[in-house]
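# nightly structure sweep
# worker-07 picked up a monomer target from the shared queue
# config: single-sequence mode, recycle default, output format = structure tokens
# input follows
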Amino acid sequence: RSDLGYIKNIQIEVRFQKRSTCFAGASFLQSVEKSLNHSLPAFLMASGGKRGRKEGAAMIYLEPPGTDPYFNLALEEYVFEQMDRSRAYFMLWQNRHTVVIGRNQNAWRECRTTLLEQEGGVLARRLSGGGAVYHDTGNLNFTFIVDQDTAPGLNFKIFVRPVVEALARFGVHAEFTGRNDLTIGGMKFSGNSQYA
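# output follows
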């Protein structure tokens, strides 16, 4: 099981056990960058918002320095709350041995906290809603932070398109399905949430 038994009442989610180093390495990041440059709508890359996004302004890539979940989630919140809203931001990040719960979840109902702590894991809460998820260095998280005035409807498809296109460059056919999921061969490998 992908949650190692830490999450109660979990819906089964398929994760890839074999990972190609290219997905965590430079070539995958370069592929995501190419996809960002070619597939994101103009409102993410240039003017269009009420807060004066500069024409042709590139999205800012932020790379957290490590796998500390508290730092990574705090960085995400800091960028959201404090940084220039006329710019768009993108982060790729990983957490070590962590269960991350949604904004409104009860940690003790969702997670076997004692087991998690006994095995050196940590529990963290994210800004957005949604279910409990297990993070480790075998998964890659991505975050887009944009001013909601520039993103009509905050449609998930807009934000997952670069990931789908980057995977296609490696011959992996991924699809956006349901409300906010990415699937390969009908099996979920990514769920997405938003905070406004």
